[in-house]
Design brief:
By secondary structure, the protein is mainly beta. The chain has 10 helices and 56 strands.
Length: about 750
Amino acid sequence: MGEFADKLATKPLSYQRAYLGSLLPNHIKSGNLQKYYQKLSDFNFLMAKIQHPEFGVQALIDDFNLLDDSEAVTHSEYNPETAKALDLIQRVLWMSADILERDRSKLAQQLLGRLLYFEMPEIQAMPEVAKQWKSAPWLRPLTPCLTPPRRGLLRTLEGHSNSVNAVAVTEDGKRALSSSFDKTIKVWDLRTGKEEFTLKGHSDSVNSVAVTEDGKRAISGSSDNTIKVWDLRTGKEEFTLKGHSDSVKAIAVTPDGKRAISGSWDTTIKVWDLATRNELFTLEGHSNWVNAVAVTEDGKRALSGSWDKTIKIWDLTTGHELFTLEGHSDWVNAVAVTEDGKTAISSSLDKTIKVWDLTTGNELFTLKGHSDWVNAVAVTEDGRRAISGSLDKTIKVWDLRTGKEEFTLKGHSDSVNSVAVTSDGKRGISGSSDNTIKVWDLTTRKEEFTLKGHSYLVNAVAVAADSKQAISGSSDNTIKIWDLTTGKEEFTLKGHRDSVKAVVATADGKRAIYGSWDKTLKVWDLTSGKELFTLEGHTNWVNEVAVTGDGNRAVSGSFDKTIKVWDLTTGKEEFTLKGHSDSVNSVAVSADGKRGVSGSSDKTIKVWDLTTRNELFTLKGHSDSVNSVAVSADGKRGISGSSDTSIKVWDLRTGKEEFTLKGHSNSVNAVSVTPDGKRAISSSSDNTIKVWDLSSGKVIANFTCESPIACCAIAPDGVTIVAGDKSGCVYFLRLEGIAEYLEKGMA
């Protein structure tokens, strides 16, 4: 792992602890700032400290804060470029904390995936050292593929088992609360990213959560029609408020913490006295579900947003409606109000955010930019910015003085359902249907970086036989050809009218075949980039395509439940194989072209004789849809990946299952097998790519991405992997340390 780390590893743990704990403070005390800087950009030092059982990620993050910024600037050895590099490294640790807490060995992956964007000498030196790390097999990013540390994301909080519906943050900015469809509320320490405790008691989805200004209480609203009040010092439920006859979708609390306001799908808003635990009054007037509520800073007015497309303003002293704001063309999902009580912000299914003058009741302007429903909106305490979350998976930050979009934050892999902002306006918190909460830095958004890939999810990838080119197909209807040695895009092929779901290249590397949801397959000349011909015959989406080793035949699987075999010299269909009772999601063909294997949503795999056109046998064992199949080069083994989260290995001579590989926590979307048949690669909706040793059945390497992985392929060299995710990113990875692993195994 490096001379420094190797030597340190030979010392007792107590010595390691003392050394790693005092080294940096001693450099600062002695005035040797240069040594301090050097250690914090030394990969081996970072790896040694993060892997020590008594330190870890947070201790390492704290090391970067030992020297106050003001002290550093006045120091004679202060170097702005070095300070900037250290800031980037610390941000990577923040962003990757959730991953590194689970597996500290992934430090090299995270640093490379996020820092390869930067050409600063201090930054480039670290990846160069990290590349040499070979203490165990690992997947090394060949190109920058993860969100860089200057795009706002600080860290991801994971723990909910279902969609996160709402988030709130305490006034001091130290804690965040999240409520989920999994019926729980979680309380998080924003400094460490650790979950403090989980509040349980609701019997259905928790749709909303609010926290009192003193941070002592949380109030939650649920689809079980109740509101619960929680003590945040003990994590215990104090009491339950009942009165709504349908789901409670929104909660707000007055600044003095004495009253709670709830909005419900029973079309009413209720005002509750938290001291007496009584309902004070019910506000009626909306003609449809109430989806959002907010309260002014003086506690005198409440705002409610409804699926009747309006926002109503209420007098909390009298319980009377003051006026109604109309202008949205679809349901209102969220409302917020500035601290001075003069301006309201609302978001809607009409994809817009509207800004209103609460003095006159007039619309000031409309914020446009989201491409789908706007589910959530929050406003900074100074009233200058609004933050919105959308079904388009993004968070946008808006300048409320100009009505212009400042920037967009990307990172969630599913709908953003809720947003909150700390009182100092420096951090945003978002909750998503991808089950995560993300913490964003709203102060730094300098360089913009483009991740390699498509504008929409990548459904399929393939590698040319010479290992020089990779091919990807996407729901943006395009195919991209990549130089596998540099990771650079060579050109884009357009022609399909719908999502490209399947790609494959012939063994000579001259042609590629693509299958699409437009029901066709297209054959392209990879040298000229020209379309040769279109294969038509399927009556529904084409999900997968394979090609025989001689390049003369293609085999396609379709949502129409059939497999078709095509003559690639004439462009004609040869024959159709029928037998599956549901969509055919994947097909593979043996190297000699004599056998085909198909996987289906009917939970089975079928093995076909492509010479006699007969079904040989059906493989049963998966409990859910079979999404992907692969065949070893010798044709003896089949590999299948399923929505049941498992991978199965089959003997294709006998039709028997050999064993099952378990390790993914979500659907396995794609499988591939190395040319020597010794390892399998799998990609999953759990955001990971795993490499399996087929002799032991163990995972020997894995890579954590930022979105569900839809597809993967292995190059003929057996170590280069290409994968695509649902955000459109294409990953180029190399399996390192495999030779050392095999040597140890033989030893």
